[in-house]
Amino acid sequence: QVQLVESGGGSVQTGGSLRLSCAASGRILSLYDMAWFRQAPGKERESVASIRWSGGSTNYADSVKGRFTISRDNAKNTVYLQMNNLKPEDTAVYYCQALTTTGISSWGQGTQVTVSS
Length: 117
Prior knowledge:
By secondary structure, this protein is an all-beta fold. 0% of the residues lie in helices and 58% in strands. The protein is built from no helices and eleven strands. The protein has strands at residues 2-7, 10-13, 18-26, 31-39, 46-52, 58-60, 68-73, 78-83, 92-100, 105-107, 111-116. Strands 2, 4, 5, 6, 9, 10 and 11 form a seven-stranded mixed beta sheet that branches. A four-stranded antiparallel beta sheet has the order 1-3-8-7, with no helix packed on it. The radius of gyration is 13 Å and the shape is globular.
């Protein structure tokens, strides 16, 4: 099992930036992929970005390409989501997800991001 703790959410104005962090603990050696999801009120949870734990290849939702950057620090067992040029439609609760090599998924508690116009 992998435990995740997120931090870094908050409130910003349109065009502002935030950086989210997700610290992993537990069965780190079994990590395969880590990702950020978000869920806005009344909407389904959607994938934002993902990063392969070994190798570092990344994927992004079209809505955040060019504005968000996912990265990892293997030494700190931490994944980051740098969010620039934020828009009101980015407002949501952001969740970190870890996927192990055996297909087990773990989720963080979520962190609120609010972007005002």
